[in-house]
Design a protein that fits this description.
- The structure holds 2 protein chains of 2 kinds.
- In chain A, helix 20 runs antiparallel to helix 21.
- Chain A folds into 2 domains: about 50 residues, no CATH class; about 400 residues, Alpha-Beta Barrel (TIM Barrel).
- By secondary structure, chain A is α/β, with parallel strands linked by helices.
- Chain A has 22 helices and 10 strands.
- By secondary structure, chain B is of the alpha/beta class.
- Chain B has a single domain, classed as 3-Layer(aba) Sandwich (Rossmann fold).
- Helices cover about 40% and strands about 20% of the residues of chain B.
- In chain B, strands 2-1-3-4-5 form a 5-stranded parallel β-sheet, with helices on both faces.
- The longest helix of chain B has 14 residues.
- The radius of gyration of chain B is 13 Å and the shape is globular.
- Classes of the chains: A alpha/beta, B alpha/beta.
- Chains A and B meet through helix 4, helix 7 and helix 18 of A and helix 1 and helix 3 of B.
């Protein structure tokens, strides 16, 4: 890339410069002994072509929209269309969440993202004993198709794209979405959106697993196959590093473990007889935008490059769309403080900026009050406005990958790629992601990083404004969102009514059919679709599958 | 004279899968010389009380970020009292709005540690208050 003679000259100059710098440090020492990123990559006082001696533009970057997609997945990036502004939302009943969805759309949000409550995510109906206290708390309660219909009242499914954070019961919720589209008269090939459908990271970091790995992976590849045939614009999985990062991993671990999980899904799908260029283009990803600004930007770029190479070289994917890593980003929930909560607005803005400079396809910006409660309407609209400012006002969306070619960013991108590959190779040696998770490898690495992070904060090695520095009195935010405590009662009543109204015989038959197909290797999506159309509930369908597949038992690691 | 080693049960109550905090606290208590038993996810008030009595702990620390604290935490202290184990020190932490804390304390939760609390403060609280 660089002229050899000029590089040699620069090397000499830089050596001399370094000497004089070291001398001046005797008089003016630096703020701290070590400068490093969150992943412990050392940060130098400056970066020049010397640090990028082996840099090869065409091989390492390529042009935007071209392999290895380091500079982004579209040739002109946000000049065509901004990233989708997609706030994760859901609480209480379907009706209450529908109101929040409409509010967000009115405020200029461009896509929907459903947060489901924990009973739904773990396959329990709202009247299950283990649902006690949890109905409608962290998301919307969905028991039957009726709830999904109420959730989307007045929202035509061909006019929005919807992301659904649902994993173990993904097939059930996907089927409900399809049944709803049928009722709205919208053909499946007009539907756009994403289903999270990523069980591996549930075992590692997020905890809403139901079934053991093997049947879980089968449900996932069933969705790949079914959607590949019938819902071609749907993203059939969102392979998620977000929760791995929230659980305490570093940036490098976030990418490494996510891509290792991605490899496991690709292998499972190929094993199930699917063509890599059939399902490959519908794989999508989900990452965290954390505090260390430049490392985050480099992380997104490195992730795209590593995945492109994996898909092309390891899995021999030919279709460029299979090689493209498309991703959603959410700002880092764990970086928000309960102290001086308005400061969170600034944190979120910088994180959002890093996601956009990193080339995200869609974005959720957190609300400033989220260390205290679910976001209030006021807080969420400010969060949405923050990404609108990033998109519309500050000019960073006018050219693709504006930081490409920065010596520092390129060096960091290379270093992250290298460290990610080291982890992926280690996981391959263990026998793949599923084995690594079974042995607790990923969990232990994350736990260690989380503990170190906490110690750094407590030993003042890491500054958190309002927590260990500039600690002052502050005003508690007012108007925090409180989920209406009557939601459980209302939801259980609605569920009981639906159980009365529906054709019980049809439900029983559908569940019987489900049980028998679940014992074979056939795709489960068609029978689940029939069951949800008969208004069989999430709990009933998952209950049958629990009986056939058994339940995952968490290995307690400390 | 050697101090008696404090035994603590760290528990995740409810369906919430956010266990970063629970694990960090468990590790910190261990490093502070306590004996720590970690339950893993999805514990009920009943299962926590049962484990606490079986393991003969002096302290229960419960982590909850799902917003179900008002429903799930008070039964723990109630069952403990019913089982004659009301002397076990019960603390909790997580995403818990300030306004909810008086109710929880009234129900017998000795302290509620909200985001940003230092593990040093938690360790001190336990050492000062364990009977």
């Amino acid at each position: 890339m660089f002229d050899k003679n000029k590089l040699a000259e620069l090397k000499e100059k830089k050596a001399a410069w370094k000497k004089s710098l070291e001398k001046s440090l005797e008089k003016r020492p630096e703020r701290k002994e070590k400068f490093e990123t969150d992943s412990k990559i050392p940060v130098e006082p400056t970066y020049t072509p010397v640090e990028l001696e082996d840099f090869d533009y065409l091989q390492d970057l390529g042009l935007p929209g071209e392999y290895p997609f380091t500079r982004g997945v579209q040739p002109n990036m946000y000049r065509g269309r901004f990233f989708t502004m997609r706030q994760y939302a859901g609480f209480g009943s379907a009706e209450e969440t529908n109101k929040r969805f409409r509010y967000l759309l009115e405020q200029g949000q461009t896509g929907l993202s459903i947060a489901f409550d924990l009973p739904t995510q773990i396959g329990f109906d709202s009247d299950h004993p283990l649902a006690r206290g949890e109905v409608g708390k962290v998301g919307v309660a969905i028991d039957s198709l009726q709830d999904m219909e109420d959730l989307f009242t007045g929202i035509p499914l061909d006019k929005v794209t919807t992301s659904m954070t649902i994993n173990s019961p993904a097939a059930v919720i996907m089927a409900m979405y399809l049944a709803m589209a049928e009722k709205q008269g919208i053909p499946f090939d007009k539907l756009g959106g994403t289903i999270q459908n990523d069980i591996l990271k549930e075992y590692v970091a997020r905890g809403t697993y139901i079934f053991p790995p093997e049947p879980s992976m089968k449900l996932i590849t069933d969705i790949f196959a079914y959607c590949g045939e019938h819902v071609p614009m749907w993203n059939t999985i969102s392979i998620s590093g977000y929760h791995i990062r929230e659980a305490g991993s570093t940036a490098v671990q976030e990418i490494a473990f996510t891509l290792a999980n991605g490899i496991a899904y690709v292998e499972a799908a190929i094993k199930a007889g699917l063509d890599v260029d059939g399902f490959g283009p519908r794989l999508s990803f989900f990452f965290n935008a954390h505090q260390n600004f430049f490392e985050e930007i480099a992380k997104f770029r490195a992730a795209r490059r590593v995945w492109a190479r994996i898909m092309k070289e390891r899995f021999e994917a030919k279709n460029p769309r299979s090689q493209m890593l498309r991703f959603h980003t959410q700002t880092a929930g764990c970086s928000l403080t309960a102290q001086q909560p308005m400061v969170n607005i600034m944190r979120v803005a910088f994180q959002a900026l890093s996601a956009c400079l990193g080339g995200t396809q869609s974005l959720h910006t957190n609300s400033y009050d989220e260390a205290l409660a679910l976001p209030s309407e006021h807080a969420v609209s400010l969060a949405l406005r923050t990404q609108q400012v990033v998109a519309y006002e500050i000019g960073i969306t006018d050219t693709a990958d504006p930081l490409g070619g920065s010596y520092f960013i390129e060096k960091l991108t290379d270093q992250i790629e290298e460290q990610v590959m080291n982890y992926i190779n280690r996981i391959d040696e263990i026998g793949g992601a599923a084995k690594a998770i079974e042995q607790g490898f990923m969990q232990k690495e994350i736990q260690q990083s989380a503990y170190e992070y906490q110690k750094e904060v407590e030993e003042d090695k890491r500054t958190v404004i309002g927590v260990n520095k500039f600690v002052t009195e502050y005003e508690e935010p007012t108007g925090l969102l409180r989920v209406d405590p009557t939601v459980t009662e209302r939801q259980v009543e609605k569920l009981e009514k639906k159980r009365q109204e529906r054709d019980g015989k049809k439900v029983a038959e559908a569940l019987k059919e489900l049980r028998s197909v679940a014992q074979t290797n056939e795709n489960l999506m068609p029978v689940i679709l029939e069951a949800v159309k008969a208004y069989a509930t999430v709990g009933e369908i998952c209950g049958v599958l629990r009986e056939v597949y058994g339940e995952f038992q968490q290995q307690v690691l400390l | 004279m050697s101090e008696k080693i404090i035994r603590v049960l760290v528990a995740k109550i409810g369906l919430d899968g956010h266990d970063r905090g629970a694990k960090v606290i468990a590790q910190a208590l261990k490093d502070a010389g306590m004996e720590v038993i970690y339950t893993g996810l999805r514990q009920t008030p009943e299962s926590i009380v049962e484990t606490a009595i079986q393991e003969d702990v002096q302290v229960i620390g419960m982590s909850i970020l799902s917003g179900a604290h008002m429903q799930l935490l008070p039964p723990v202290t109630e069952y403990l009292r019913n089982q004659g184990a009301g002397d076990i020190l019960v603390v909790s932490g997580g995403v818990i709005p300030k306004d909810d804390i008086p109710f929880l304390k009234e129900a017998g939760i000795a302290e509620v540690f909200t985001p940003g609390t230092s593990t040093v403060d938690i360790i001190k609280f336990i050492k000062d208050n364990v009977s």
